[in-house]
Design a protein that fits this description.
This protein is an alpha/beta fold. It has 2 domains: 185 residues, inorganic pyrophosphatase (n-terminal core), CATH 3.90.1640.10; 116 residues, Diaminopimelate Epimerase, Chain A, domain 1. 37% of the residues lie in helices and 19% in strands. The protein is built from 11 helices and 11 strands. The relative contact order is 0.10.
């Protein structure tokens, strides 16, 4: 495809990422926003949720969610495993020509043009391949795409890292990606509030299956006590994954109305199947879902869904 040409030919673009965006989703959306900007095409970037503040260092972050929501002739969707991840912006499907870029195995190709590659590490990997091939990447785009590569590979530590990922990271750095400052912002800029929340997460740990499953629980009261928001729970699961005996880690973050945002990570086990039990999904070793109910019931059901698949 010639993505640069499609963006130049459009008059007004709506770029949509998934609710509760992560680094890959933000990096992909912002890189396309920058591409439209330098192509002279009007573009608006939206996510149907609050934005995680710890990504506020990213260029054009302040331009997100400032949309007129009218007169689009092109819809670009990034990192959405299904149409429901678009939130309220799914209403634009079928009303305007749509293109999507994604790497989730759950994606059923719901756009008009679908560039879905489940065995890529990230949506930013897919876009990096396309845009580098089109020689469309400037230093700002390179930095934004690098954020997505880094975060969705666990700082290049997950088993979705391939030689192609390292090659793309190198090419992005050649284009001016500021890897050092990205790494500092992502991994060396923790707030005191987040540090306190990590302490509570460690205290909450419960182990199952002879220590192979570790569950972290974060209640609304924990967030309030630490001065944190739900977005601050991102990355807490890594504390559990760092334990040598743990094969599957879970973070259960309480939301209002007895809802729990459940994140799952594994070392070799298929947690996407466990998440699918509750209508969620994701990747084999990184998945998530939302489960409603009382804490003890949710905990029991989540652990059972994992042990049944181990």
């Amino acid at each position: 495809m010639n993505l640069t040409k499609k963006i130049k030919q459009a008059k007004k673009i709506l770029i949509v990422g998934h609710v509760r965006p992560d680094g890959d989703c933000l990096g992909a959306g912002l890189a396309l926003y920058r591409l439209a900007q330098k192509s002279g095409t009007q573009a608006e970037l939206v996510y149907d949720s609050d934005l995680p503040f710890h990504y506020s260092f990213m260029q054009y972050y302040d331009c997100i969610n400032k949309a007129s929501l009218s007169d689009y002739d092109l819809l670009i969707i990034v990192d959405c495993g299904d149409r429901f991840r678009m939130g309220k912006y799914a209403e634009f499907l079928g009303k305007v020509h749509s293109i999507q870029f994604d790497h989730h195995i759950s994606n059923d190709g719901f756009a008009d043009e679908n560039y879905v590659y489940p065995y890529r590490s990230s949506t930013c990997e897919i876009l990096s391949e396309i845009l580098l091939d089109e020689d469309a990447v400037d230093s700002e785009m390179a930095t934004l795409l690098y954020v997505g590569l880094s975060t969705d590979t666990g700082h290049f530590m997950h088993n979705n890292v391939t030689s192609a990922v390292f090659s793309l990271a190198a090419k992005l750095m050649e284009k001016g990606a500021d890897a050092y400052n990205v790494n500092c912002a992502l991994y060396r800029s923790r707030t005191w509030e987040k540090t306190k929340l990590i302490g509570k997460a460690i205290q909450s740990m419960k182990f199952f299956g002879d220590g192979s499953i570790c569950v972290i629980s974060v209640m609304q009261s924990d967030l309030t006590d630490c001065g944190c928001s739900l977005s601050d729970t991102e990355g807490l699961i890594d504390v559990a994954m760092d334990i040598g005996s743990v094969k599957v880690a879970v973070c259960m973050a309480q939301q209002p109305n007895n809802k729990y945002k459940v994140s799952m990570r594994s070392k070799g086990f298929d947690v996407a199947c466990a998440a699918a039990v509750f209508g969620g999904g994701g990747h084999v070793q990184a998945a998530g879902c939302v489960v409603c109910g009382y804490y003890e019931d949710v905990l029991r059901k989540v652990v059972k869904s994992i042990t049944d698949g181990m």
